[in-house]
Amino acid sequence: MDSQDGTQQTHLALGHKRFLVTHPDVQDIEKVRLKEEVFAMVKADYMASFYETLAAESVLEMDQSILDTMRAKIDEEIKKLDEKIADAEENLGESEVREAHLAKSLYYIQIGNKEKALEQLKITEGKTVAVGQKMDLVFYTLQLGFFYMDFDLISKSIDKAKNLFEEGGDWERKNRLKVYEGLYCMSTRNFKKAANLFLDSISTFTTYELFSYETFIFYTVLTSIISLDRVSLKQKVVDAPEILTVIGKIPYLSEFLNSLYDCQYKSFFSAFAGLTEQIKLDRYLYPHFRYYMREVRTVVYSQFLESYKSVTIEAMAKAFGVTVEFIDLELSRFIAAGKLHCKIDKVAGVLETNRPDAKNALYQATIKQGDFLLNRIQKLSRVIDL
How confident is the model at residue 4 (pLDDT cuts 50, 70, 90)? Predict the structure, then answer.
């Protein structure tokens, strides 16, 4: 189940294929191939209950004889595992009993029986003393959570892992947990926290069971672009040696990052268009696709407008390689949503920026707090006078 050999954990690969089979943008011919792969993986691991789910969703055709064969095989295997547990309890020591229970947990994970797997992991945990081994059980639970996209289970497991670390735990597992938590944050639209966790793990990445290092860098760059200020982006991402060694292997990603930093807006937009397909076809990012597209455009428009007190709409459209109408419509939406601090002068065809002044905001806040304090003092003096 857990892979230490640099390959993605089988069930997470299966989860991604299942996602693509039902994706509206994947071509039918590709879906036929993916269905065959999903079916082969389900059959290889005797995933009976998951097979039933996929048949109910019309992802796969139900073949009753195959389902019966799977169930018979599972019953036979569980019987063997129970015999091993009984034997360990009668004739062997505590660690052998734990190993026998762990083997049963892993078998339930392998056949994709979530409820039974969680039950059995709990029993195994009751027989586990070492913090490191308890942590490994949490990682198994997290992998189950990501396979089923069960964010409640993932969130509880992350909290549990953090509590375990207070009892001890090694750096290697702590670093692995950061990537798991980063993936959880990214999947639940907390891109800022995800970026920080990914950046922290860049030099210690070992969680190949979740995804490859290239995918990890892809996520790190995407989350950082909408989360970091310009100085941090340069220092932590643009110039990071670990990112530089891999970024060229991912189509459009290097142009996307560098053209934003170098203010090459035409190149940025064309790289962004190239990347959208990859973002759309990603199981974790797809639900946030529209949100992410808006956030990126907010970042890039804000960066462009920061250089000017006023600029013509035509000049901005030219810089981005788009039409005046497109920029006009885009900016109207972003200004209305409070995402950009500028005004459009339609008559003159000019954009005027009205960036919020930090000093002014501080001054206003101080006055407000002062008024609040005076009111409190007046109320208090009235009470004392009585």
Answer: very low
